[in-house]
Amino acid sequence: MIDSIPPVVPPGRMRALRQPEFDLPHGMRLRPWAAPRDAPALVDCFLDPDIRHWNRPSRLDLPGAEERITRFHERWQAEEAAIWAIAPATGGPALGLIGLADLDLPGGSGEILYWLLPAGRGTGVMVPATTHVTRWAFDDLGLHRVRITHSVANPASCAVATKAGFPLEGTMRGALLHADGWHDEHLHARLRTDYPG
After folding, report:
1. Contact status, residue 114 vs residue 129, Cβ threshold 8 Å
2. Which of 97, 109, 82 is closest to 190 using CA atoms?
3. Could you tell me if residue 153 is inside a domain?
4. What's the CATH number where 67 sits?
5. Are the C-beta atoms of 158 and 170 separated by less than 8 Å?
6. Which of 23, 46, 87, 136 is paired with 129 by a 20 to 30 Å CA distance?
7. Residue 156 in domain
8. Contact assessment for residue 38 and residue 94, using Cβ atoms and an 8 Å cutoff
């Protein structure tokens, strides 16, 4: 009987954790989103054609972006998602986002999502950011499986997943509707047991 299987991550574990910060190469840092400082990045992500092509960001004004940042913090407390800003370590505003969403804590899984504004691209930060979030998901939160999905037409995202140690498991046909139609999606995943020691 399914009720006899204990949850992989017990209720309350995530909200009891403080959202960590991580140093990244090239003077960058993962940290919680902060309003009003980071609100312009959420406005700008919708205006960027590459982010809009591969993701589905909301059109936000500055007040709406500040509300979204508040929602990021509420989703942590509700154990629904963990969302970080990718920002200069010197304290500048966010240049990108990485998060762990679609959380199934009883089942022990979640999905990493990410994007960078043009000012953050080419810095080499996304692979180490993905590695930090993944290790946190396994070591601190206690997940069993973390996945990354992306359009098969997005080689940059595929390279991040592969370099971060997420093997390609297969292709999901017609899995996500983009502005230009349905896209097949690659599925990459790691298990907690994939990490040595």
Report:
1. yes
2. 109
3. no
4. 3.40.630.30
5. no
6. 46
7. no
8. yes
Structure tokens belonging to residue 170: 């297969």
Range of the domain at 139: 2-144
Q: Is residue 85 part of a domain?
A: yes
Looking at the structure of the chain, the number of domains it has is 1
Mean pLDDT by 10 residues, the chain (197 residues): 83 97 96 97 92 85 96 98 97 95 98 95 94 97 98 96 97 92 96 79
Give the per-residue pLDDT at 197. Answer: 44
C-alpha span between 35 and 51 (Å, rounded) = 21
Indicate yes or no: pTM above 0.90: yes
pLDDT at residue 190 in the model: 97
Structure confidence at residue 196 (pLDDT): 61
Q: For the chain, what's the residue count?
A: 197
Q: Which of 60, 120, 122, 127 is nearest to 85 (CA)?
A: 120
- Whether residue 20 lies inside any domain: the answer is yes
